[in-house]
C-alpha cells in the first residue's frame, strides 16, 4: 500500500511499505522537506518508535569505524546486529580487512527493502560478495551456542540498554547476556554498540565485567531537523575475560 501527497509535480510524501509485524506496525516512508530541496529522505518507524532517518547517520557509521579500528589484523569475520537503512553495514564494508559480513535483522521486511533495492544502500550491499543478510532474532542467536567465533560484533537495534524495542531484549544487556554474547567472539574479538544519547556509566562498567578493555565514545553530529547538535554513544569492548 502506498500513500502519496503531492506538491506541484513532485512527491512530497510517499509510504513505501507498511505492514504489521510481531513487534508492531512497520513503516518505510520517503519524503522531501522544503529546506532540503530535492533530497529524498528515507525514514523507518516501528509502532510509535522512530527508528532512523537517512538525513543523519553519523553515529551509525561511527559504530563500524570505531568498532573495527579496535582490531589490528585482517581477514575479519563480522556480524552486524540490526540492518535498518544499511549505514553501519556499508561503512563496515569500506574496511578492506573485512572478509565476511553477516547482517542479522529480525524483520523480514527490512531485509526485503534492501534485496529489492527499495532503499538507497540496497544495491551497495547486494553487489558486495562479502555481505549476506540473514533474517533471525539476533538476541536469540547470542543466547545459543556459537556457530563460529567472530572478530567483531557491531550492534544497533535498541535505543539504549534500558530503552528497548521489545522487553525480551533486556536480558542481553545484563552481565549474563553480555557474557553469552562474548562467547561468539574470538578471545581478542571486539563488541561495539550504538546507543542514543550520551554514554551511560553503568553500562560501560557492566561491559568491564565481561571484557578486559572498554571505552565509551561520545558522537556529536549536526541535526538538521532541530538545527542543533545531537549526541549518540558508541561503546567498544575488547578481549573477553
From TrEMBL:
Any one Pfam family match given in the protein's UniProt record, by short name: Spermine_synth
Highest taxon in the source lineage: Bacteria
Gene3D superfamilies: Vaccinia Virus protein VP39 (3.40.50.150)
UniProtKB keywords: Polyamine biosynthesis
InterPro entries: SAM-dependent_MTases_sf
GO biological process, one term: polyamine biosynthetic process
Protein name as annotated: Polyamine aminopropyltransferase
Species this chain originates from: Pontiella desulfatans
Amino acid at each position: 500500500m502506498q500513500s502519496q501527497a503531492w506538491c506541484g509535480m513532485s512527491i512530497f510524501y510517499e509510504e513505501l511499505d507498511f505492514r504489521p509485524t510481531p513487534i508492531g506496525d512497520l513503516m518505510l516512508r520517503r519524503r522531501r522537506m522544503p529546506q532540503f530541496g530535492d533530497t529524498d529522505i528515507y525514514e523507518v518507524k516501528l509502532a510509535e518508535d522512530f527508528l532512523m532517518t537517512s538525513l543523519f547517520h553519523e553515529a551509525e557509521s561511527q559504530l563500524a569505524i570505531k568498532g573495527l579500528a579496535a582490531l589490528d589484523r585482517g581477514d575479519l569475520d563480522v556480524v552486524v546486529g540490526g540492518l535498518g537503512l544499511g549505514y553501519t553495514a556499508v561503512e563496515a564494508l569500506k574496511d578492506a580487512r573485512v572478509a565476511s559480513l553477516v547482517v542479522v535483522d529480525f524483520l523480514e521486511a527490512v531485509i526485503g527493502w534492501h534485496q529489492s533495492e527499495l532503499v538507497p544502500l540496497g544495491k551497495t550491499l547486494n553487489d558486495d560478495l562479502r555481505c549476506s543478510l540473514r533474517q533471525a532474532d539476533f538476541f536469540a542467536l547470542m543466547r545459543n551456542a556459537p556457530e563460529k567465533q567472530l572478530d567483531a560484533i557491531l550492534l544497533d537495534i535498541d535505543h539504549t540498554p534500558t530503552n528497548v524495542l521489545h522487553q525480551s531484549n533486556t536480558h542481553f544487556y545484563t552481565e549474563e547476556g553480555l557474557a553469552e554474547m562474548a562467547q561468539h567472539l574470538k578471545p581478542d574479538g571486539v563488541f561495539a554498540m550504538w546507543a542514543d544519547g550520551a554514554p551511560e556509566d553503568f553500562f560501560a562498567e557492566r561491559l568491564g565485567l565481561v571484557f578486559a578493555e572498554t571505552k565509551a565514545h561520545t558522537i556529536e553530529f549536526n541535526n538538521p531537523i532541530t538545527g542543533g547538535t545531537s549526541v549518540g554513544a558508541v561503546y567498544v569492548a575488547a578481549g573477553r575475560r
